[in-house]
Design a protein that fits this description.
The complex is a heterodimer. By secondary structure, chain A is mostly helical. Chain A is built from 5 helices and no strands. Chain A starts with a helix and ends in a 14-residue tail after the last helix. Chain B contains 4 helices and 8 strands, in the order βααββαβββαββ. Chain B has helices at residues 7-10, 16-31, 68-88, 128-140, and strands at 2-3, 39-44, 47-54, 91-95, 106-109, 115-123, 149-156, 161-166. In chain B, helix 4 links the parallel strand 6 (115-123) and strand 7 (149-156). The interface between A and B is medium-sized, with 24 and 26 residues.
């Protein structure tokens, strides 16, 4: 897919995602699509180009908006290994901190799972 | 004349699927007080311009389903993109996520193939000059402004008026 096609698709996906109620299932799914499109743009644009910078930061922010902090961290790690401008690197590190905080929050607030043992007897 | 029914035709690079909802919200914002054919007073880099705004009158029942804040914000985007295409010959490259930070709503490209970072603001009745200063400053301090020209466009719907300014133009 060409960069123009991807730019059209990501524009449509962002306009749609941002019109949905924040935190709704629909919004999470829409932002997941935004993140995937941004990631596709990132793969065909250099890290030191404006469109490449927007796409890399966009993939991570959309993953956070999609409620996917683990994906956000994985993307951040991948992008930080590239030749990015210092400002972009700094922003990615800020986003990684947000993702870390969301993961920690999820661990704290998730219901406790306790091991229950039982045996089956033949009827 | 700006025909909001043909926003994608007016704005090169803007996909029809995005143009539809943006234009709809501009129509809702305008129909709070105005009918199709109302004049928009514009200051483009300080120079006055008048534009007639046309659209097909909305069916009753559409406006109450729309969120007021979103109507004003996205309606302003529709007008800003139309003005920047018609008068500055900027082409839409893509929309940016609002969570990416203040100061960069749309990535555009000008006739000389230079990047333009456009920030847009909308208000129903507020002061436009103050809003333009804020938005232009946000565009200047955006993460991406070091690679493109910062620009801002603000729109008011009560008495339709818009201000557009970029750092490459004489002020």
């Amino acid at each position: 897919m060409s960069i123009d096609d991807l730019n059209h698709r990501v524009t449509n996906a962002i306009v749609r995602a941002e019109s949905l109620p924040t935190g709704s299932q629909e919004a999470w799914e829409a932002f997941h699509e935004v993140s995937a499109l941004e990631e596709s743009i990132a793969t065909i644009t250099p890290p030191d180009d404006l469109e490449g910078e927007i796409a890399r930061l966009g993939a991570v922010t959309a993953a956070l908006s999609a409620g996917e902090p683990l994906r956000a961290l994985q993307l951040t790690e991948r992008f930080l290994a590239e030749n990015l401008a210092a400002e972009i690197e700094e922003k990615l590190r800020q986003l990684a901190k947000e993702a870390d905080a969301e993961l920690a929050d999820a661990v704290t607030n998730e219901p406790t799972v306790e091991l229950v043992t039982f045996s089956l007897r033949a009827a | 004349m700006i025909d909001l029914d043909d926003l994608d035709g007016l704005c090169p690079g803007l996909p029809k699927q995005s143009a539809g909802p943006l234009a709809l919200r501009a129509c809702v914002a305008l129909e709070r007080r105005h009918a199709p054919g109302v004049t928009l007073d514009v200051a483009l880099h300080g120079a006055p311009v008048c534009e007639e705004l046309r659209w097909s009158k909305l069916p009753a029942g559409v406006a109450p389903t729309q969120d007021n804040l979103r109507v004003t914000e996205e309606g302003a985007v529709a007008i800003a993109l139309a003005l920047s295409a018609r008068h500055c010959r900027w082409r839409v490259v893509r929309c940016l996520q609002s969570r990416l930070g203040e100061g960069a709503d749309w990535l555009m490209i000008d006739a000389a193939e230079r990047w333009v970072i456009l920030e847009v603001g909308g208000t129903d009745e507020g002061r436009l000059e103050a809003l333009l200063s804020v938005k232009l400053e946000q565009a200047r301090t955006s993460l991406f402004s070091r690679r493109g020209t910062p620009a801002a466009c603000v729109v008011r719907f009560a008495d339709p008026r818009a201000l557009l300014r970029s750092d490459h133009e004489h002020r």
